[in-house]
């Protein structure tokens, strides 16, 4: 049986795109194979941040992930910077990664366009990501669709390193992605993917009122200008969210009411809000319990880091031997 690894940046609030695209899958998969989930704080420092804010966000992310259903008795949850081997292996991988592959990464092109000054860290981000995964020699990586290109590069890096330093042994496996049916959730602006860095999110732990404040003005089918205009559910982001949160008969009903102009968009959003509440209320309740008992979070992260350090050390020993450092 293989090993599962995935990570999330503490670059902002855990949102329903992260949940539907990745974290919900983590919760399900933790019972199927050895699973390692990482709060990747070295990734999150690539964009400007406040140190105090990073501490706070890392903690909030741990609370969100545990509240979503990660069970520290079943999987390992830890903070990347607690296991220094991640950055050590990333440096090594720098030396086998083709520059051209980094420059053609869509995420690099998108994010660098939005930045005044672009750091080498933004370019090299996928190398650290490859190190995160390969340090545990994981073969399955549950992610959203936006990470497929990065994962492809992880396979290139594994292949290149293996060819150079461990021919015929397959020391590093080539990690494969695992997607969900909700692999790409659009932001409330209807323009780009829901992203922590875009301010177009609904937080997983937000209250019903907060969610409604964001949902009410969210972009729907742009051709539905008046309530009497029939809509096309498939082009509407709210319909996609119904598919993620509502029961199948509700989804069918929504499609009919939209395409016949039986409902206005606000009616449709109210039904969505109730479906979201069904899934999110228990998650919020667990988050409250974790906030009231901080030692539960501390213990989970410490246990996870302890286990991961041991595996990381073992992999690095193998890397050092094969590369002439030991
Ligand atoms: P940032 O804007 O800082 O990059 P992010 O919202 O993209 O933040 P990440 O930490 O980069 O979040 O990604 C965590 C996981 O969530 C990854 O597996 C990623 O593929 C997934 N993910 C992120 N956004 C979405 C989305 N809109 N739909 C589906 N999955 C997503
Ligand atoms: Mg991202």
Write a structural description:
This protein is mostly helical. It is 55% helix and 7% strand. It has 13 helices and five strands. The chain has helices at residues 16-29, 41-44, 51-68, 85-94, 99-103, 106-113, 120-134, 148-165, 208-215, 237-245, 248-259, 265-292, 294-323, and strands spanning 3-8, 34-39, 76-79, 140-142, 176-178. A three-stranded parallel beta sheet has the order 1-2-3, sandwiched between helices. A two-stranded parallel sheet has the order 4-5. Strand 1 (3-8), helix 1 and strand 2 form a beta-alpha-beta unit. Helix 7 (120-134) crosses helix 8, helix 9 runs antiparallel to helix 12 (265-292) and helix 10 (237-245) packs across helix 12. The longest helix is centred in the C-terminal third of the chain and has 30 residues, at 294-323. It is globular. 37% of the residues are buried. The mean pLDDT is 97. Adenosine-5'-triphosphate binds at residues 8-9, 11, 17-18, 20-22, 143-144, 146-147, 183-185, 193-197.
What are the SSEs and their pairings?
Elements: E1 3-8, H1 16-29, E2 34-39, H2 41-44, H3 51-68, E3 76-79, H4 85-94, H5 99-103, H6 106-113, H7 120-134, E4 140-142, H8 148-165, E5 176-178, H9 208-215, H10 237-245, H11 248-259, H12 265-292, H13 294-323
Parallel strand pairs: 1-2, 2-3, 4-5
Helix pairs in contact: 3-12, 4-7, 7-8, 9-12, 10-12
The structure holds adenosine-5'-triphosphate (ATP) and magnesium ion.
């Amino acid at each position: 049986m293989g090993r599962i690894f995935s990570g999330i940046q503490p670059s902002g609030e855990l949102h329903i795109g992260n949940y539907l695209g990745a974290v919900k899958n983590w919760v399900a998969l933790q019972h199927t194979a050895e699973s390692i989930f990482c709060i990747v704080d070295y990734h999150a420092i690539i964009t400007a941040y406040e140190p105090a804010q990073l501490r706070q966000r890392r903690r909030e992310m741990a609370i969100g992930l545990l509240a979503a259903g990660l069970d520290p008795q079943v999987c390992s949850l830890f903070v990347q910077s607690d296991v220094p081997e991640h950055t050590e292996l990333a440096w090594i991988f720098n030396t086998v990664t083709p520059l051209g592959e980094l420059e053609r990464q869509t995420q690099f092109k998108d994010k660098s366009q939005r930045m005044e000054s672009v750091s080498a860290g933004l370019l090299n981000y996928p190398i650290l990501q490859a190190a995160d995964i390969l340090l545990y020699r994981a073969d399955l990586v549950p992610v959203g669709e936006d990470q497929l290109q990065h994962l492809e590069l992880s396979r290139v890096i594994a292949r290149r390193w293996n060819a150079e330093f461990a021919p015929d042994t397959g020391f590093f496996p080539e990690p494969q992605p695992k997607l969900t049916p909700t692999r790409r959730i659009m932001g409330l602006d209807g323009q780009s993917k829901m992203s922590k860095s875009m301010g177009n999110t609904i937080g997983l732990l937000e209250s019903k009122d907060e969610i409604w404040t964001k949902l009410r003005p969210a972009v729907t089918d742009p051709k539905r200008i008046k309530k009497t205009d029939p809509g096309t559910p498939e082009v509407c982001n709210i319909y996609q969210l119904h598919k993620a949160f509502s029961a199948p008969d509700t989804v069918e009903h929504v499609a009919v009411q939209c395409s016949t102009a039986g409902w206005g968009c606000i009616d449709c959003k109210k039904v969505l809000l109730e479906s979201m509440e069904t899934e999110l209320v228990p998650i919020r309740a667990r988050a409250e319990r974790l906030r009231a008992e901080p030692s539960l979070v501390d213990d989970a992260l410490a246990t996870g880091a302890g286990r991961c350090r041991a595996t990381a050390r073992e992999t690095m020993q193998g890397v050092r031997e094969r590369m002439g450092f030991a």
